[in-house]
Amino acid sequence: MRNSIKRIVFLSNPKNLQVIYEDNHLIAINKRPGDIVQGDKTGDLPLSEIVKRYIKEKHNKPGNVYLGVAHRLDRPTSGIVVFAKTSKALPRLNKLFAEKEAKKTYWAVVKNLPVKRQDTLTHWLKRNTKQNKSYANQKEVPDSKKAILSYQTIKELNNYFLLEIDLKTGRHHQIRAQLTAIGCPIKGDLKYGFDRSNKDSSIHLHARKLSFIHPVKKELLELTAAPPIDPIWNAC
After folding, report:
1. Which residues contact 150 (CB under 8 A, 6 or more apart)?
2. Is 91 helix (H, G, I), strand (E, B) or coil?
3. pLDDT above 90 (res 81)
4. DSSP letters of 72-87?
5. What value does the mean pLDDT take over residues 125-145?
6. Are 187 and 111 in contact (CB under 8 A)?
7. pLDDT for 159-201, tens place per residue?
8. Cα–Cα distance between 111 and 204 in angstroms, integer?
9. According to the CATH classification, is domain 5-235 in 3.30.2350.10?
């Protein structure tokens, strides 16, 4: 039986929560840079709580709203985040992401043109928890994890280049570390070698597309999210 295909682009609502897709089982949000997906030691209001409030108000739900976090994006990064609205959908979503059955495509704006306009990068990433940073190594080192991505240069901007990245593995700060390793740090990413920060502390890394088989409906979902509004992203 062939999977039906749904193509969805992001929509916005009056409360500034950009809802890309929603059904009885899932809700997908276009995360703004600066939002945290799940609560952490900062105590800042996480996106998961904002989404719960949205669901509660939209559907007039009494009591607590169920929402499961299946994956995350770094705080300064923007783009697609999918949440489970039911306890049935969450373990299936977790399995889907854990087994790399979701295709993730990112956009990154970098200062330097890569030596190769397109390539597949393989590194061994080692995480430093004290620094909250990962380092890319050409060879396997103790406690490192293999990281693979493919990229292609899709647009030349004034002083910058837009890369489209297909993520093959999901490691801590993987794209940021691997692009830095080839001399192409992401615009605004001071932690990984860019020379200055963006005014809003964002970085120009955006989770552009996400496609996967719906864990309950068994249909192929292809989600696309517009990048944030700023002069650089607008030029993309």
Report:
1. 118, 119, 120, 121, 165, 166, 168
2. helix
3. yes
4. ---TT-EEEEEEESST
5. 95
6. yes
7. 999 999 999 998 999 999 999 999 999 999 999 999 999 999 9
8. 11
9. yes
CA atoms of 90 and 172, how far apart (whole Å): 22
Mean pLDDT of 42-63: 87
Residue 53 to residues 37, 42, 84: CA-CA distances in angstroms? Answer: 14, 20, 14
**Domain chopping of the chain, boundaries:** 5-235
**CA of 132: how far to CAs of 6, 125, 129, 142, 162, in Å?**
37, 13, 5, 18, 26
**pLDDT, mean over the chain:** 90
The alpha carbons of the chain give a radius of gyration, in whole angstroms, of 18
The residue with tokens 């409360």 is 15
Q: Are 131 and 180 spatial neighbours (Cβ–Cβ below 8 Å)?
A: no
Band of pLDDT at residue 9, cut at 50, 70 and 90: very low
78 forms bridges with which residues in the sheet?
206
Residue tagged active-site, from 44, 74, 189, 195: 74
Joined together, the tokens standing for residue 119 give 């390539």
Pairing of strands 78-84, 205-213: parallel
Cβ contact 223:210 at 8 Å: yes
Residue 74 is a catalytic residue? yes
- Cβ 214 vs Cβ 231: under 8 Å: no
Query: What residue type is assigned to position 213 of the chain?
Result: I
Could you please report the per-residue DSSP string of 127-175?
EETTTTEEEEESS--TT-EEEEEEEEEEEE-SS-EEEEEEESS--TTHH
Query: According to the model, what pLDDT value does residue 144 have?
Result: 95
